[in-house]
From TrEMBL:
Organism (species): Cytobacillus purgationiresistens
Domain of life from the UniProt record: Bacteria
Gene3D superfamilies linked: 3.30.420.40
InterPro entries assigned to the protein according to its UniProt record, in alphabetical order: ALP_N, ATPase_NBD, MreB-like_C
Name this protein carries in UniProt: Plasmid segregation protein ParM
Actin-like protein N-terminal domain segment(s): 7-180
Actin homologue MreB-like C-terminal domain residues: 219-336
CDD domains, per database record: ASKHA_NBD_ParM_Alp7A-like
Length: 388
């Protein structure tokens, strides 16, 4: 039996899903209940494999959702079809909210369909890792969050042609890690377990360093929270780690409120729609939204930069600092200018593909011997699926 390895980072803004040997995908964390078509669909074709991600129309049956056999439109299609959007609340408890489960199952179904596009029934098995914020994670809710993913779920994808594809997803094992700490796995190792060497500047010299035994300071700037995490290599140090109960979402919602008052005919109706405009340089309203957002983003960057500088000072000895997350993608230019002006850029790295850093770390962890040990310990099942 083939077991696919995956890491799923379901944030306030979007799901970031990375399956081994596949390209990562992102789906806006937003859905709308399917209420039927307003006009008759005539001579419609199947959605091509490359476009599945932007046309998610699925029915989900799962122990992890309250209302089974419910049909959802998810992600980009909600925005493109101008549907009423349901999103995570500002202070949502991601260990209990069903939106992360709904979007993750949809993402895994899309992954499976892209591999076996012509089939009408697909059965697929995953090992999965997920994450919760440092400020809210506990042993109890981490286990509860993992448990709701484990088991068998059915996702039926509805093509506009009328063809339905049933994807039976079995999640063999799931482990829940603290956000930020999960990312450390992708900073230190790759998916094969090989230690990654990164270039750092020491005096006037550039040298290669691995981070297996180094003190690492992580700033994972999300939508709803910001994780301030210290690890020794991949070993999480909870005593000196913390979570801030804000990210970029609160600021973005304030910007949206002011935008909608100023431009009522160009209203922005969700976080997902804001992101679509803000990150698409070719969008007709991109430049205007960037200008309208500048003051709010600068204020948030000043607030977070103070946290970064204070934490570096607390740890002393210039720890290796990594900044990432969806919020880092928004605030990077502001944070870099502030830290540079204050001369606080020693050992500071803004990781590439900041939105996928946690997802990649979760994938690397899923591929690790540590994950296999945990799976065998909890389930009595070895990595190859045999009983121990």
């Amino acid at each position: 039996m083939t077991i696919f390895k995956a890491g799923a980072d379901a944030g306030n803004n979007g799901l970031k899903l990375w399956v081994k040997n596949s390209d990562p995908i992102t789906i806006p964390t937003v859905y709308s209940l399917y209420m039927g078509e307003t006009t008759e669909l005539m001579d419609m074709d199947d959605i091509p494999a490359k476009d599945l991600i932007n046309n998610i129309d699925v029915t989900i049956d799962s122990k992890a959702v309250t209302f089974n056999s419910q049909r959802y439109v998810i992600g980009e299609k909600v925005l493109n079809d101008n549907l009423q959007a349901v999103e995570l609340e500002k202070k949502s408890d991601k260990s209990k909210d069903e939106i992360p489960v709904i979007v993750t199952l949809a993402g895994l179904a899309i992954d499976a369909m892209k591999r076996e596009y012509d089939k009408d029934k697909i059965e697929v098995t995953y090992d999965l890792s997920v994450a919760l914020p440092v400020s809210t994670i506990s042993q109890a809710n981490a286990k509860a969050n993992s448990d709701r993913f484990m088991g068998t779920h059915e996702v039926t994808f509805h093509h506009p042609s009328g063809r339905n594809v049933k994807v039976i997803i079995k999640i063999d094992y799931c482990k829940c890690l603290p956000e930020g700490a999960a990312a450390a796995w992708g900073v230190v190792f790759d998916e094969t377990g090989k230690v990654i060497e990164r270039k750092v500047e020491v005096g006037e010299t550039i040298i290669k360093v691995d981070f297996q035994n180094k003190t690492l300071l992580h700033f994972d700037i999300g939508a709803g929270t910001t994780e301030v995490v210290v690890t020794e290599g991949v070993k999480f140090n909870p005593k000196v780690s913390s979570g801030l109960n804000y990210g970029v979402k609160q600021t973005i919602l304030e910007i949206i409120k002011r935008w909608n008052r100023k431009y009522p005919l160009k209203s922005i109706d969700s976080m997902a729609e804001f992101n679509e405009i803000y990150f698409d340089s070719e969008h007709a309203r991109h430049n205007l939204l960037k200008n309208e957002s500048q003051t709010g983003m600068l204020q948030l960057a000043q607030q977070i930069s103070s946290v970064i500088i204070d934490k570096i000072d607390d740890l002393k000895d210039d720890p290796y600092v990594f900044i990432y997350g969806g919020g880092a993608a928004v605030l990077k230019d502001y944070l870099q200018k502030i830290l540079n002006t204050k001369g606080r850029t020693t050992n500071v790295t803004f990781l590439s593909e900041p939105m996928f850093v946690n997802a990649r770390g979760l994938l690397v962890y899923t591929c690790s011997p540590r994950y296999e040990q945990q799976k065998e310990k909890e389930l009595g099942v070895a990595a190859n699926g045999t009983k121990s």
